[in-house]
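Dear colleague,

Following up on yesterday's call, I've attached the two folding results inline so they're easy to grep. Please treat them as preliminary; we haven't cross-checked anything against experimental data yet. The first protein's sequence and structure tokens come first.
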Amino acid sequence: MSKRFNKSQNTAGRSLGQGMLIASFVLALGGMTFFFDSQLERQYNPNRNPRGSETGSRVKEVILEQNRQGHYVASGSVNGVDVVFLLDTGATDVAISPELANEAGLQVGYATQAMTANGIITVYSTKIDSLTISNISLRNVDGSINPGMAGSTILLGMSVLKEIEFSQIGSTLTLRQYPETRL
């Protein structure tokens, strides 16, 4: 009888050990997924929390780092909604997806045609009440709601970039907003 009891204990111990091993693998896989996802996000958007400064003459300045693909991507907000901006000097306006436009409470305006990398498309005009990157803030900005866009990345086009000074040295881009800029 004692032999049978030991065999039962051994089987239970083995099952517990296998369960612990599986749980360890699941936890390790989850941890690695979280770590590498965070690393990939940093590579895409090295400016998740861009720091702003202000000079004595009230010039607001934000310095952005280039991402791995050579683009300037930065976190900010549109009408108080957190977004990710991709600076695009080839875009006339701020281009935003319908989902983000809805979330930010943007009104759909008149339809117009726009030339994109994918050809001519129909976009809808809109006005953005407030757009912010760190301490740089603009009001009443021209935008376009682009039905072909998806996701949380917004193209930061010339309707914003014409209101601020920007200069690139090496892999950094400096944005400057002077006091006379539309606030």
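Below is the second protein, in the same order (sequence, then structure):
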Amino acid sequence: MEYFFLGETELVIAFRFIGIEGMAVNTSGEAIAAFRKITENDADIVLSVNRAEEVRLPSADNCHILIMTEEVAVWLGDLLVDWQLSGRYPLLVEIPGIAGKMSGRKTLVDTIREAIGIHV
């Protein structure tokens, strides 16, 4: 499994249509628990989602890219920053959620432009 998604239920379903497994997270506690299970190599831990479905989480060895919504990224806070600075897999990719881009969040392009000082 190279990709895994954390976010809203609707987006989990959409990602499954294109072959990417995921888990719906609705609170910061759920997001932190899932993120820790994936990054701490607790391979194949099964978590109950809304008591109606079970999801097999990948380990960091099996997941190279972890896609998450901006809201999930906010919930993870410093945990997310520490992981990004570690340089380990999975790589983290943030996307807007169902409600769209969160105000005050920079896009990747904005961050790169700011870092290199070029505005086209």
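For the second protein, one point worth flagging: The chain has a mean pLDDT of 81.

Best wishes,
A.L.
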